[in-house]
Amino acid sequence: MPNPKMLKVGDRIKFFALPEEWKDPTFTICDEDVAFLETLIARTWSSRVCRIDDNGTPWIEARIRRKGKLDHHSWAIQEKTGWRLVNRLC
Questions:
Q1: pTM for this entry
Q2: Strand partners, 34
Q3: Banded model confidence at residue 90, pLDDT cuts 50, 70, 90
């Protein structure tokens, strides 16, 4: 399993499944987050890590067009499953 803390700004990752961690019955995730991640999974292109926060958590930003309007989203990559490294920026 990849470790999200090893990602660097500029790395490209591809989401391919909902995280296994979300299957835990004690884990709570809202429907909007599930829908957002399903949108990223359906995309054919990867996402770029745009920043690392003070806790070492990598973040991506995504623009999603819905009903002709562009929505901007940020997403912290905390789970170790459901994504893979596609390209590392040297």
A1: 0.86
A2: none
A3: low
**Residues forming beta bridges with residue 14, ordered by sequence position:** 84
2: its two tokens = 């990849």
What is the rounded CA–CA span in Å between residue 21 and residue 4? 14
pLDDT tens per residue across span 9-57: 999 999 999 999 999 999 899 999 999 999 999 999 999 999 999 999 9
Task: Check if the beta carbon of residue 51 is closer than 8 Å to that of residue 59.
Answer: yes
Domain that residue 81 falls in: 4-87
Contacts for 78 with CB less than 8 Å, ≥ 6 apart: 4, 57
Count how many domains the chain has: 1
